[in-house]
Design goal:
Elements: H1 3-22, E1 24-26, E2 32-34, H2 35-46, H3 52-59, H4 63-75, E3 79-81, E4 93-95, H5 97-121, H6 126-140
Antiparallel strand pairs: 1-2, 3-4
Helix pairs in contact: 2-4, 2-5, 3-4
Amino acid sequence: MEMIEVFGTVKKLLNWSAERNKMTVDYGVKYQLCMSEIHIIEMIGEQPGILQIQLCEQTGLTKGRVSVIVSNLVKKEMVIRNRTLENKKEMPLMLTSMGKTAYLNHKERDLKIFQEIQNVMSLYSEQELEHFNACILQTIDI
């Protein structure tokens, strides 16, 4: 396989990912959500009380970007910020009931996608998957 073909495939993957991140999806709640929003909801759902700074560390997104996403989710009534008496600067994040619904519907949708990916990956050996994963990780670090 020519290196230019591999580069073309990587470009397609990046373009696909960028387009997918712009799309909004109906998770059975009042608002449609984009990928960055539902992934922040997912993280809050899995780690109730998580702080914005922890979201930054775990996602690799900037403080500004996380702040914008969380503010949008607060406006959409998906997330609430709780002030603690001990530390008024830190505001642990929690899901509202609508946020929990979106979270659960996303988990269900993600499970289906994961199963489809697993079907494709089952065609490859452990060594091929490790090599693929290493290539992706190295590409991300560029």
